[in-house]
Specification:
The protein is mainly α. The termini are close together.
């Protein structure tokens, strides 16, 4: 195992983490922005008001994209196990 293979695995894992976290973070950002705009328009400054819509939005994203996320993780894991013989040499 050399430095380039370690860097390649680290790069692939960072890209995978970004792809998996992206939809969840974008949805929570958009919901938070929407709730923030509503709060500023109505001058209701309750911090816990955005929690339930964000939680519901994240749950919907996980339900809709969970199968894709799981398949991405499984493919990455299979690729890692396929790389093991080459890394041992």
């Amino acid at each position: 195992m050399n430095d380039s293979s370690v860097i390649e695995i680290a790069t692939q894992s960072i890209i995978l983490a970004t792809k998996l976290a992206g939809p969840i973070l974008i949805v929570s950002l958009l919901i938070g922005l929407g709730i923030g705009m509503i709060q500023s328009a109505t001058q209701i400054q309750e911090q816990t008001l955005a929690f339930v819509p964000k939680l519901a939005g994240i749950a919907i994203v996980i339900v809709l994209a969970g199968n894709w996320m799981l398949s991405q993780v499984i493919d990455f894991t299979h690729n890692l196990f396929d790389m093991v013989p080459n890394l041992i040499r």
